[in-house]
Design a protein that fits this description.
It is built from 13 helices and 9 strands. It is α/β, with parallel strands linked by helices. The N and C termini lie far apart (51 Å).
Length: 294
């Protein structure tokens, strides 16, 4: 049993914290929303520093790089309170440069970047893919915690490597969804039956996991966000954030990424239309097809 502080109990952090409790760990939760901490039904802390003070491991599941930076390096943050040797695991999606900075500025802690793929469903059923960057000894210490949360756990490389892998993944996911959106708009314009189109695409070279979980025409699969008012499995605002980070990373290497840039533009249009809190498959509704006027 480990004493684990989980900071950030949102749609991902809360189910992950519950799995850690179920695995026999002594879990302390910390979140700006008191109700999230109460929903965990475990220990509670009022500040990140308080949560970290007696922890063997601190896991972060936060919505932005600025939140990670503040929670770790800010006043009453993790760095100021955690004991030497404490595991600090950032499971948010952040720039690789921030992961490397945390590793450099918190040398007394065992820092890992460990972003995840699989969304709220993967968090709920402990089937996440976990992409880890950092030292191998820290990874091995954290492995039992990761294995309580996911099915595939991989040490990708040094600090920042996990974040780089996650941004590569989300670039593909975001661009794929934008392409599916355009394809469906064309199909609707041609009068194709959505169910027939979905059956054909999932049996053809256009198939993908994004297609099979986020077909943007309602009524084809009740499990897809489009059939549930685009209730978010992963918010459009978040995929836009990740695409912007991926473009920044490409620029850092002197690379152009025109497909990612075009996809980000589509999501920016949807954000301006007020769809940022919806699932990112709502990019379809930015002005494509009859759903745009709903």
């Amino acid at each position: 049993m480990s004493r684990v502080a989980v900071i950030g109990l949102g749609t991902m952090g809360l189910p992950m914290a519950r799995h850690l409790v179920a695995a026999g760990n002594d879990v302390v939760g910390c979140d700006l929303v008191t109700g999230h901490v109460e929903a965990l039904g475990a220990g509670a802390a009022g500040t990140p520093g308080e949560a970290a003070a007696a922890a063997d491991a601190v896991l972060l599941s936060l919505p932005s790089a600025s939140a990670v930076e503040d929670v770790v390096l800010g006043e009453h943050g993790v760095r100021s309170a955690a004991r030497p040797g404490t595991l600090l695991v950032d499971m948010s999606t952040s720039p690789p440069a921030l992961a490397r900075r945390l590793g450099a500025e918190c040398p007394e802690l065992h820092v890992l970047d460990a972003p995840v793929s699989g969304g709220p469903r993967g968090a709920a059923d402990a089937s996440l893919t976990i992409m880890v960057g950092g030292r191998k000894d820290a990874f091995e210490r954290a492995r039992p915690l990761f294995e309580a949360l996911g099915r595939l756990v991989v040490l990708v490389g040094g600090h920042g490597a996990g974040q780089a892998a996650k941004l590569c993944n989300n670039l593909i996911a975001g661009a794929t969804m934008a392409a599916i959106s355009e394809s469906c708009a064309i199909a609707v314009g041609e009068g194709l039956d959505p169910g027939t189109l979905y059956e054909l695409l999932t049996a053809s070279t256009g198939d993908s996991r994004v297609l099979r979980t986020r077909f943007p025409l309602p009524g084809v699969d009740e499990a897809h966000p489009a059939s549930n008012g685009f209730a978010p499995l992963f918010a459009l605002d978040l995929i836009a954030k990740d695409l912007a980070l991926a473009l920044e990373l490409a620029a850092d290497h002197g690379l152009e990424a025109p497909v990612a840039d075009a996809a980000l533009h589509a999501y920016r249009v949807a954000q301006r239309d007020g769809r940022g809190a919806l699932d990112y498959s709502a990019v379809y509704r930015r002005g494509d097809g009859p759903e745009a006027s709903d």
